[in-house]
Amino acid sequence: MIPVLPTHVSGLDEILGGGIPLRSMTLLLGRTGAGKTVLAGQIAFQQAKAGKRVLILTALSESHEQLLTSLREFSFFDEAVVGDQMRFISIQTMLRNGLAGAVDAIIEIVRTENPTLVVFDGFRGVAGFANSEREVRLFLYEVRTRLALLEVTTLVTLEAMPGEESDSSALTVADGVIKLHNTLWGVRHRRHIEVQKLRAMNHLDGLHTLAITSAGIICYPRHEAVYRTVNYTVSADRAAIGLPELDEMLQGGVNRGTVTFLAGSPGAGKTLTALHYIMAGVADGEPGLFICFSESEEQLCLKAKHFGLDLRERVAREKLSLLCLAPVELEVDMFAAIVRNRVEHLGIRRLVIDSNAAVEAAILEPNRAPGFFASLMNYLRERDVTSVMTQESNAFDGGLGESLGAVLADNLIRVRSIEYQNRLYRIISILKMRQSGFDPSLREFRIEDGSIRVVPAEESGIAVMGGIAAREQRTMRRTQPDGDQ
Fold it and tell me: What is the distance between the alpha carbons of residues 5 and 43, in angstroms, rounded to a whole number?
């Protein structure tokens, strides 16, 4: 176990593998506006408020008053620790005779102040006094070594110019390099944090989402890096959907701890079916989480009320959690963090994501979606959360295309609209259940005033359902590749 200095920045310690190693020197590297000073200041204030002494050294960067003014915008700022637990000192005059002569003066200040953490803010200004890259390396090496002997942990913010993010000589000296990215994706900026190196720590690799809020920096670890294992068992117990005829087709419901993909054309009844499913679980004492991207909480409650489901009452009694998110500029790692947090802190047993397409559209990185959804679904299975994810399919043929949910889910239910003999029918069918048998027949799915139900074949008309089934079989044969029987 490596002793660490916890940053207490939300999500960052998880990415770092616990925190910043004590007595190490870590660079915060990034271009202008990436958030380096905010992150260093947030870590510094967290240490000062915990009773540790912090020393912030500046040179040729913004004045101390400007620095404090910018940090006052964040809720982590605490005026009470400034000047006592946290001291700001300019080392510009010490650097006029070169970097070599400044080392002794800096060490003397540190001996006098006796801090736990030292922050060099704006190291590019310090490096500007050097005559060569070799002199910069020697300066950092001397400072890192001598501060480590004094049991001091060091943070250095370094502005990286375009093309220099991996070429600075400072990177070779530091024990850790944390890169902050602020890049343009299409018409929007996206912020990420990356641990390029952190000696002796089992940190999470790759890019992780970062947000700058009024509370300061919040980090959202990449979900696939947080959860990589596959370690779950599927229960033989059933979770009822809440529609008796559909549960009968499912032989009692879906297996607990599985993921069900509910695909269908617009207006076919996916959301209503998902609402019945979540409320059936709540009625059985299973806390539920319903995540919606297309409707507000008010709209969702009104829709449910029309079908005899009192969502507001269940939310008020804290049996059900509703989360209505705007799909605009959604960050999937933020979304995954919200799911994990609610599952683990609210004891969620049933989950609905309505719809899965909004999450998939938010994954901007090429080829990331399969790994993300596989990781998310395995996480839910291991936590024994029985999940339903909805997705739009083509309006009339109900085709699923290459949908990831259809491939990765344990159970697949399809609802669609079919025009037959001058009438529009809603049809429901079960396409797969990995852990159970099921009724594969086509059934009419009626949404009537105040109720939804799966209709017995004899009520729809045996001839009608037989005709629809025959037409479906002919369509399937026409769309199969040559030679595929």
Answer: 10
Strand partners, 26: 155, 176
Q: What is the pTM of this model?
A: 0.88
pLDDT band for 421, please (50, 70, 90 cuts): confident
Q: Residue 376: which of 390, 364, 389 has the closest Cα?
A: 389
Partners of 154 in the β-ladder: 25, 118
Q: Which of 203, 159, 141, 148 is nearest to 60 (CA)?
A: 159
Q: Could you tell me the fold of the domain covering 238-479?
A: Rossmann fold (3.40.50)
Report the C-alpha gap between 147 and 155 in whole angstroms. 11
- Give ∠ CA 75-76-77 in degrees, rounded to 5: 90
* Cβ contacts of 297 within 8 Å, gap of 6 or more: 322, 324
The verdict on whether omega for the bond into residue 355 sits within 30 degrees of 0, i.e. cis, is yes
Polymer length in residues for the chain: 485
Both tokens assigned to 32 = 């202008």
Residues of the chain with CATH 3.40.50.300: 4-221, 238-479
- DSSP codes of every residue in 75-118: TT--GGGBTTTEEEEE-TGGGTT-HHHHHHHHHHHHHHH--SEE
With CA atoms as reference, report the closest residue to 389 among 370, 367, 364, 408: 408
Measure the CA dihedral 128/133/138/139, to 10°.
10
* Nearest-10 crossing angle of helices 332-346, 369-382: 0
443 has which bridge partners? 428
CA distance 65 to 412: 61
| DSSP assignment letter at 480 | S
Q: Which two tokens stand for residue 281?
A: 């679980």
Superfamily in which the 4-221 domain is placed by CATH: P-loop containing nucleotide triphosphate hydrolases (3.40.50.300)
| Interval 279-332: pLDDT, tens | 999 999 999 999 999 899 999 999 999 999 999 999 988 889 999 998 888 999
Q: Which of helix, strand or coil describes residue 421?
A: coil
